[in-house]
Amino acid sequence: xxxxxxxxxxxxxxxxxxxxxxxxxxxxxxxxxxxxxxxxxxxxxxxxxxxxxxxxxxxxxxxxxxxxxxxxxxxxxxxxxxxxxxxxxxxxxxxxxxxxxxxxxxxxxxxxxxxxxxxxxxxxxxxxxxxxxxxxxxxxxxxxxxxxxxxxxxxxxxxxxxxxxxxxxxxxxxxxxxxxxxxxxxxxxxxxxxxxxxxxxxxxxxxxxxxxxxxxxxxxxxxxxxxxxxxxxxxxxxxxxxxxxxxxxxxxxxxxxxxxxxxxxxxxxxxxxxxxxxxxxxxxxxxxxxxxxxxxxxxxxxxxxxxxxxxxxxxxxxxxxxxxxxxxxxxxxxxxxxxxxxxxxxxxxxxxxxxxxxxxxxxxxxxxx
Length: 369
Ligand SMILES: Cc1ncc(COP(=O)(O)O)c(C=O)c1O
Fold this sequence. Notes:
The chain is α/β, with parallel strands linked by helices.
């Protein structure tokens, strides 16, 4: 059993993927070839925004967004301490200060009730993460940011394909960023990412920053980076993209079935805010996380922990002067969560095996989340 099965997906769509890659090898435009624009049009249309800008990774895309907003030293950016390092790393890379808000223990997303308290006159952006595949309440977050000169950036690395109140992830904030890392809901065969916005000025700036600070060759009005997506990766994404809506439906179905069969023996993911969930990770909460991981492994079931440490526990963020106890919901989640095999091609038999093993070995947490 695979934790995320990329091989089955490749076997199913091999002819299209190989064909698309072969065309790139033949035309030879490996950097900014025609597939880049074709993919950007397809992504923008799927999400329902004016502009999609492909980039080299989800990390680069977050950094480009912050740079396009002119965020730097002296500015604060609000995010969560229970996420992948990139969400916070990029704030430090542009010289700004990360400010953490704890998560809601049920959805693992930013606790909107605690957001207002974290905002100061130096807050320039709020960068919530749509963790594990569902979105925090962006209507509420946008409302808090509105009129204060604060931009909301959705870190949608894990939620591409999800919706909230009928609107797609990446379409509900001023800027959104996603990742095409192979294991993500829409993944390429290397690193990749994309930015989304309806704003023409930000679109131009982000495009320029992606390509060394300028759109015209040998003209560099901004400080930029080499942040382009490879044409080959765009070709792979174009081949996979027609199958993505079907994969999203499969993810929803498989996630809902896990929840139905596991509820009662462990903490299951709850879908909130009129969301649909793409289950980039199917994450449960138990009282014996490490022991459960060992038991699953003994039965041939892979599992993973996202994330075993909060960001305020990471040595690199020690200068922020947070301490253990500052973010109890995040801290508790980091000690209790474990993610189960999850991908659109997980069979019922495989899922039944996982469910039986979890129901047998999981111990409840000592308190409700
Ligand atoms: C929440 C979150 N933000 C950002 C990223 C960064 O994406 P990438 O790996 O494409 O740089 C990831 C990827 O793991 C992520 O999960």
